[in-house]
Amino acid sequence: CGCYRIGSSVEFDWSAVSCVRTLRSLGHHAIVVNCNPETVSTDYDVSDRLYFEDLSLETVLNIWDIEAPAGVIISVGGQTPNTLCSALEKQGVRIVGTSVAAIDCCEDRHKFSRLCDELNIDQPRWKEFTDLRTAKAFCQEVGYPVLVRPSYVLSGAAMRVVTDDEQLDAFLKIAAVVSGESPVVISKFVENAKEVEFDSVACRGEIVNFAISEHVENAGTHSGDATLILPGQKLYVETIRRVKKISQKLARALQVSGPFNIQFICKQNDVKVIECNLRASRTFPFISKAFNVNLIDLATKVMIGAPVTPLPIHLMDLSFVCVKVPVFSFARLRGCDPVLGVEMRSTGEVACFGASKHEAFLKALISAGVPLPLEKRTILISAGPLWSKMELEPYFKILLDLGFTIYATEGTYRFLMNSVVRGQGTHLPGNASPASDSGLRTPTTAESDADACIRAKYASRIIRVRKPIVGSNESHNGGHQSPHALSLIESGKVEMVINVPDSMNHRAATNGYLMRRTATDCGVPLLTNVKVASMFVEALNKKEAKEAQGRSFWDIRSWDEYWPQK
């Protein structure tokens, strides 16, 4: 059932317990191996026998010799059991469900890539390296950013998006030894693409049931940390068709019998496979609860050869949307930069139903302990590079229309004054870096008196603030007309902080880090992702608009009311 660490706990515990309950309901004895005292699977009355031991090859072999079971199920406990399957099979242990050869095919980059090529399935360019020189040459060939990772990783451990040679050098020195015994896989990181997940149960290669969910964040955020929408709301019909077709191809080729998860990266209708996991993903409990179909119950019956009936989910017939948001413990991790990436950092999750994705999203945020900033309507924004400022531009206007006062750091303030107040458009010059604040251009049309009045009102609620200086002991308030960002956070004058990092390198101490860390330490809600911030403002606007019409935004119902029992 996995190990005692972030990324391998409650979601896989649910899958393990569901599997045990199904086995026992079918008249089988179930033995659990788990050393996590906080899980339900280690309760004394859940299984017929509990071994409170670490999940190592030696331990499992000893238990196999003592108990002599009919087989071992490894596909419901996360990545850790998966890493043991080849060694266990070599020692004569019978693995129940999908074959070990198929699992190894998906875990081995070379084998999986060959399979995708044979099936004409697209994937991001990648290569395996045993020395730094050739790794750098590949990165320069495909262009940065790239994703660097070893094989058989748990929760994105030792994975990183790097943006230049210097970061590549530094990361490989601290994260991995690049040698023939421990090669490193580097793949092209596709920017501004959507990540889509396909979770399914298959029986001898034929899909029994499935669900397609989309991440709110662009690709680059670990799936365990992503804000998930189920069913996906902003996916092209052609994208969904291709995702289903590719998934069925892989299931048949691998002869999957049990749970599996495929992660896709989608840009327009260009669909690429990131990876395929022949096990239950951490999304299985969310999907099962949202759709009232226990996917692990189905998977367990498939694995032990019990009869199963396909239970297709008709996504278009659903009258609700579910959104899952992560919960973090950054406040307890002093000094940690609360920015998300490819390595999992969340310690929990909350999921909510709603009539729309916006309602479900706000419900989930509130349930996760994020209050809506509607009392003072004050928000501190440091929008990062120019591309993120441009993406957030319409949402800045929405906040101002909703009566918010925006405290903006220097670059964001200049952008707001030029684009929102003065009506000057922005563009990215053909030879300019997206991270540059160049690209402002003068207005080409005269504005009306009404427009001028609106812009003057906007200007009165956009306040320039000073960023903290790394390593400086300057006073937050002394001798300056502009308020200091940290003092605004510490005094509680702002109810939320939107702080978008300037780069994918979150290891260096920056003024952005100081603002993010201060917000976390002071308990001020913090958003660091452009897509999440955009959806948050969009949802607030929907709420305010509906309530302005005298209608309630919230549809408060219990789970039983969404899924009445027959």
UniProtKB/TrEMBL annotation:
GO terms for cellular component: cytoplasm. One of its GO terms (biological process) is glutamine metabolic process. Residues 370-566 form the MGS-like domain. Its EC number is 6.3.4.16. It catalyses: hydrogencarbonate + NH4(+) + 2 ATP = carbamoyl phosphate + 2 ADP + phosphate + 2 H(+). Gene3D superfamilies: 3.40.50.20, ATP-grasp fold, A domain, ATP-grasp fold, B domain, Methylglyoxal synthase-like domain. The keyword ATP-binding applies. One of its GO terms (molecular function) is carbamoyl-phosphate synthase (ammonia) activity. Keywords: ATP-binding, Ligase, Nucleotide-binding, Repeat. This is carbamoyl-phosphate synthase (ammonia).
